[in-house]
Amino acid sequence: QMQFVESGGGLVRPGGSLRLSCTASASVFDLDLYSIGWFRQAPGNEREGVSCISRKDGTTNYADSVKGRFTISRDGAKNTVYLHMDNLKPEDTGVYYCAALNSASTCRLRTYGYMYWGQGTQVTVPS
What we know:
This protein is mostly beta strands. It has no helices and ten strands.
């Protein structure tokens, strides 16, 4: 069964940086054929959209809380989508997930329609 594999999380001090990676469990799965979204979930909270990159033209979208600090990008040669996170804050703590959206429209930050959710990677920024 196809699902994504997230990696790169960890424990980082406030103001620090991390780069998360999203790859496919099946090597034949081409991430460039989908819009890819990053989401996060903190304990007791609903899963929220953080950033996404559109299939059709690479348009990116960010939650207001991460604009100017997070950057999403693709590496087609490595079949990987990254989320580079700078100036991390305690409120960024959570499990981060990536997922795919099969849509020709600009990507969105709502979970509806996204597929192939992985197990996530934990990001912890202590206060």
